[in-house]
Amino acid sequence: MIPLPLSAIAEITAGTVHGGRPGAEVTGPVVIDSRAVEPGALFAAFRGERVDGHDYAAAALAAGAAAVLAERPVDGPCVVVPDVRRALGALARGVLARLPEATVIGVTGSAGKTSTKDLIAQVLRDAGPTVAPAGSFNNEIGLPLTVLRADAATRFLVLEMGARGIGHIAYLTGIARPGIGVVLNVGTAHVGEFGGREAIAKAKGELVEAVPPGGTAVLNADDPLVRAMADRTAGEVVMFGRSPEATVRAEDEGMDEFGRARFTLVTPEGSAPVGLRLVGGHAVANALAAAAAARAAGLPVTAVAAALSRAVPASRWRMEVTDRPDGVTVVNDAYNANPDSVRAAVDTLTHMARGRRAFAVLGEMAELGADSVAEHAKIGQHVARSGVATLITVGDAAAAMAEGAEQVASWTGESVRVDDVGAALTALRERLRPRDVVLVKGSRVAGLERIAEGLLA
Asked: Which of 7, 158, 198, 418 is spaced 20 to 30 A from 410 at the CA atom?
């Protein structure tokens, strides 16, 4: 963060300085975990359901924090505010206003946000200092914490923006208004909370509504609900996708034996070959979105293609491929799951497994509402029709996948239902042979990453 005196922080957050000199400066990062404090940091004391950050204020100050952002006075320098969450957002907005050279790139969508954000950040780093979150810091706490990592040297600020309801992205864009706004897709993730895809589209479109005149809205030409958002922005509209009408598109697509896509990146300024190091055909759409965003930021197509070809997975548990010494390949895609992403992962599994046995270990897809059982059953049918040798479902909510697979009369594979991670590991260890390929995927509530970790231990 840029250095700021406590008096300025208090002014930005509508707070009051207690227990310290108003001129004392915060020179380090803003953190919400007292264990992450560095000298000069600002410790934001959040009150959670189980832990009250105010109880850790003394430890944060002892570790070198310059001050605490708090809702009540603590024993030491602090800025007291009515609401720490709102104050954190206000502070991020105030700091960003002091960084006029930084271009904000916002990314949203039902699937692929984190992977696309990682790609955009890796491409833009070749053009200038770039700040982007690690993992999925995409809510009202994670986004301002990312903004507050920017400093005077920052040229690009890449922000992932998530939503669990109408107005959530509007709040985030109120903190960091995007000069470039990227909408990837409108799928069924969180459909149970929103009530339908049209409501999801309304929420995701809040991002492009925030793009100002002179900015750029980057939209998926292959998704009708995203394409329709062109009427909701004051910025220039650039389409990406496989459609011939897309401004930034892919041609001559192929995939190598490891499931990594290659294609020709085509733009109005020219074309260039791309060979991704990321696994899965769905990575092409993410790469095209990243290319369109980088193009809007002024990068030439050859530089974009070269950077995409060098890019590596940067966030955990997203199509992480590891080969065991015995030849078993483990694909850990256990960070999250929705119907679209599970189908894409299964398709990649069967491509990688050509001539080898494919195992799909799948957990619950959360937040699907009334459609949950039907959507799980459809995934099971897709698994069976894809020719997967063994489907292992973990937990009661995922059992409908097994039922769906068993409905496919032509499937000759095996369906195994287990209650938990330990039972899934046992089932796999009893069945796996050298050269088998295992996909592990489920929503965060399932904790399936422990299965992949157990297989690789």
From this structure: 418
